[in-house]
Amino acid sequence: MNDTAMVEPALRLRGATKLYQGTAAISDIDFDVAPGEVHALVGENGAGKSTLCKVICGAATLSAGELIYEGKKRAFDSPQDALNLGIAMVYQETSLVPTMTAAQNIHLGREPMFSTHKSLNIRAQHLLQSMNFSVDPKALVSTLGTAKRQMVEITRAIYFGARLIIFDEPSASLTPEEIQHLFLLIEDLRRRGVAVIYISHALEEALSIADRITVLRDGRKVRTVRASETTRDEIVRMMVGREVARTRASERRIRDRGELVLSVDNVVSGTMVRNMTFKVFAGQVTTIAGLVGSGRTEIAKVIAGAMKRRRLRGGTIKLDNRPVRYRVPTQGVRDGIVYVTEGRKMGGFFETMSISENIYLGYLAGQRQPLLVSRKRERELARNWSDKLQIAAINRDARVIELSGGNQQKVVIAKSMVQKPKLVIFDEPTRGVDVGAIEEIHKLIGKLADEGVAVLVISSYLPEVLSVSDRILVARGGRIVEQFDASAATEEKIMFAAIH
Question: Which of 11, 55, 77, 342 is the most exposed place for a label (fewest CB within 10 A)?
Answer without folding.
Answer: 77
